[in-house]
Specification:
The chain is an alpha/beta fold and 384 residues long. Helix content is 20%, strand content 17%.
């Protein structure tokens, strides 16, 4: 949960949004009973034949200009740290592992390779590091939270190189952004893209891109969608927050993305999130998720980070809640953001996956630079 400062500005928009009346009052904390019910409901994973509930929204126009609330504080599912928590963190907190925890930096998995071939009927993912993926689905090449910089403001340099050299990328058809924290929204990387690249962003973040002359910027609220070349982009909730300057806390939304190909191949990119009730609701609305890209790192100390970052065990539980067949861990082994030993997220997620009784081949614990291809036809046969 890094707090950093950057430039601010404004843009004029001309449309309004209608809230989703099926979502709960987000100012009311979720009870432990709600959490138990959500986990119980998720014990039976949705299948591709299941109907979404509620029905999915009609796609909105690409590049639509809209008017948003000044803040999204009402979407928080946990209060942001106050002065008491800040004082405790200053007294006893740590943002880096100790010497023993850093000793395994050289063992972090880094195995870059060529991007796999992928046609319109396959899904492939390549992990560039942290939350940055080269995702190919429905014939499109999509970047998630692209950060190709060696350094970002406020934290040490990356401990593994970028897994995909920029010059080896095919034409980028779209970019999705989960939220505006610096380790997910990197201006130097985005400057490398042609300004006509379609970008899909949370509500309130479009003006940041328009100030940088991007011409097709689609802002979405939770549960809203847009389409590009037959691929559907749905923006879904997350347990997190946003901040980029001293004066813009929660002025833009945060969330994840569900990407659905014309043949119903479906990938969930969780962005950055803590654990909570949203995962089971995502699974009900988007049955038949083939692959979940889920964060597993930056979780220690738990009293400070549990509301906004999953630990490895919670990541496996979240994957089950959304009903995904396969899970690809991310948000670890790239930037050191917290105090857990650098290899601990990997060892813990493997153990949690095994304890959950999941097939080992369905845990895509890729090295930085590693790729996997998911043939839609083989996944459909396995689920039928």
């Amino acid at each position: 949960m890094t707090q950093q400062t950057h430039e601010s500005g404004s843009a004029t928009t001309t449309a309004t949004t209608t809230p989703d009346l099926t979502t709960p009052d987000l100012t009311t904390p979720v009870s432990t009973t709600d959490e138990a019910d959500a986990r119980a409901a998720a014990s039976v994973a949705p299948t591709p034949s299941a109907l979404p509930f509620p029905p999915l929204a009609e796609p909105r126009p690409l590049g639509e200009l809209r008017v948003w609330p000044r803040t999204f504080h009402d979407r928080l599912t946990a209060p942001l740290p106050g002065l008491k928590a800040m004082a405790r963190f200053a007294r006893e907190g740590s943002v880096r592992p100790g010497r023993e925890g850093l000793a395994d930096v050289r063992r972090l998995p880094f195995e870059p390779g060529p991007l796999p071939r992928a046609d319109a009927g396959t899904v492939s993912v390549t992990w560039a590091g942290h939350a940055s993926w080269v995702l190919r689905i429905g014939g499109l090449t999509i970047l998630t939270d692209p950060v190709w910089s060696r350094r970002i403001l406020g934290i040490p340099a990356r401990v593994t190189p970028v897994g995909v050299p920029w010059e080896t990328l095919p034409r980028v058809d779209a970019v999705v952004i989960s939220h505006n924290h610096y380790d997910h929204l990197d201006a130097p990387t985005l400057r490398r893209l042609p300004r006509d690249t379609p970008v899909f962003v949370p509500a309130g973040l479009g003006r940041w891109f328009r100030r940088r002359r991007f011409t097709t910027v689609t802002e979405l609220d939770w549960w809203e969608a847009a389409e590009l070349s037959g691929v559907r982009f749905d923006f879904v909730p997350a347990h997190h927050w946003s901040k980029r300057t001293l004066a813009d806390t929660c002025h833009s939304l945060w969330g994840g993305w569900v990407l659905t190909a014309p043949d119903d191949g479906r990938v969930y990119f969780a962005g950055d999130t803590g654990y909570g009730h949203w995962f089971s609701r995502i699974g009900r609305r988007y049955p038949g998720i083939d692959l979940a890209l889920v964060p597993i790192g930056a979780y220690d100390p738990r009293w400070w980070l549990s509301d906004v970052h999953l630990d490895p065990e919670e990541a496996v539980r979240a994957t089950q809640d959304v009903g995904a067949r396969c899970m690809a861990p991310m948000h670890w082994g790239t930037f050191i953001l917290s105090a857990e030993p650098v290899l601990e997220p990997l060892t813990r997620v493997r153990a949690a996956w095994e304890r959950a009784g999941r097939e080992r081949e369905d845990l895509w614990d890729l090295p930085v630079g590693g790729s996997r291809v998911l043939e839609r036809t083989s996944v459909q046969s396995a689920l039928d």
